[in-house]
Design brief:
The chain starts with a strand and ends with a strand. The model has no long low-confidence stretch (mean pLDDT 95). Strands 1, 2, 3, 4, 5, 6 and 12 form a seven-stranded mixed β-sheet that branches. Strands 9-8-7-10-11 form a five-stranded mixed β-sheet, with helices on both faces. Helix 3 packs parallel to helix 4 and helix 7 runs antiparallel to helix 10. Helices cover 39% and strands 21% of the residues.
């Protein structure tokens, strides 16, 4: 029996709306128990700053141009995370922090992935061990720094005795797939980013209304798809230059093709565009890897968008059953935050968190930087 640790995983995804926080017990290997999950919404100032600055970053040089603004935002985000940790201190005295931070720029071609979050400041504020900067080592070893959660997906699939092979599709700002072929203990798993998740829909809603996202797909449900614009957009996407892109940032996609549409019409068109891409890329990826897969489980905020899920199903092979991960007693809102609690302990123990078949790194790599008390 390996030593058990209590860790707090903190994840702020590409939607940039707040922090998912999860206390877990784990040995960082094959034992895992969720204890408490909670979401903390960013205030409007942090939320707006994240999205406004992100739109101004198109390449690595832009990071330097707005470095002072990014430093200010990084401090605000770190202070916000410190308050989240205070909330958990009341009921959990001793834990290690897995601090993902807020992704502000990710570019696989430039081999850079930038998260805002000062691990040293968080360590000083909380007096806790902090593990952060999870993507750096993978990139230094030839990987793309994403996706990071497949090893955790494999663990929970093993724990829940899911019928393998199985897919876990996370629909956040970006959508990514993990295909688990064998139980934990084997590295028979593959993963990649699929394409857009919620990012296009969220961006459209944010720019054309006072809302942050399309709750349960209600806007898309009330709008009519503009089939001409959809067909043109899909053709451009299919014929894009970099067809073999392995990981994405939300800046890799834009909503300009929907310009001029009404709010509901744009939401419907962008939702169908996203659903078609996810469904078709999944089909191609499964076929390419010669996997016979009967079930894909959905996690992340996008699983709640009923219209998006219907579109994915329409474009997915009829042999594949699409189910909510929640149906298997796994909270689909907190898979990612629980994962970073788990990855923190693996990093602390020097165990690999990424693999050649999950991020394209040259060899299995451990991850986060450890800051001790």
């Amino acid at each position: 029996m390996h030593k058990m640790f209590t860790s707090l995983g903190l994840m702020s995804g590409t939607s940039g709306d707040g922090v998912d926080a999860s206390i877990i017990n784990t040995d960082g290997i094959d034992q895992f128990e969720p204890i408490k999950d909670k979401f903390f919404e960013y205030d409007s100032q942090i939320y707006n700053s994240i999205h406004n600055l992100k739109e101004r970053i198109n390449n690595i040089d832009d990071l330097d141009k707005i470095s002072s603004e990014l430093k200010k935002l990084e401090r605000e985000i770190t202070l916000f995370h410190a308050k989240v940790i205070e909330d958990f201190k009341q009921s959990n005295k001793d834990f290690i922090i897995g601090f993902h931070g807020q992704t502000i720029y990710h570019n696989s071609k430039e081999k850079i992935s930038t998260q805002l979050g000062d691990g040293f400041l968080l360590n000083q504020l909380t007096k806790k061990k902090v593990i952060y900067n999870f993507r750096k080592n993978d990139i230094l070893n030839g990987g793309e720094g994403a996706p990071l959660t497949p090893i955790f997906h494999q663990l929970i699939a093993t724990q829940k005795n899911l019928y393998l092979p199985v897919g876990i599709l996370n629909i956040g700002g970006i959508s990514n797939i993990t295909i688990i072929k064998q139980p934990y203990g084997s590295i028979e798993l593959i993963s990649k980013d699929i394409g857009p998740g919620n990012c296009l829909i969220d961006n459209w809603v944010r720019k054309n209304s006072k809302m942050k996202f399309d709750l349960d797909g209600k806007l898309a449900a009330s709008g009519k798809v503009n089939e001409i614009i959809l067909e043109q957009a899909l053709e451009l996407y299919i014929n894009r230059i970099d067809k073999n892109k392995f990981s994405f940032d939300i800046n890799d996609f834009d909503i300009s093709f929907a310009r001029g549409l009404a709010l509901e019409e744009g939401a419907a068109t962008l939702t169908k565009f996203t659903g078609v891409i996810i469904g078709e890329v999944l089909n191609n990826y499964i076929f390419k890897n010669k996997v016979t897969i009967k079930r894909i489980l959905l996690c992340g905020g996008g699983r709640k968008n009923n219209i998006l899920i219907k579109e994915i199903k329409k474009n997915l092979s009829k042999d594949i059953d699409l189910k909510l991960i929640d149906d298997f007693n796994i909270n689909g809102d907190f898979v990612e935050s629980q994962a970073f609690g788990y990855l923190a302990i693996r990093s602390l123990k020097g165990l690999p968190i990424t693999f050649p078949q999950t991020t394209k790194c040259r060899k299995p790599c451990t991850g986060g930087e450890v800051i001790l008390n």
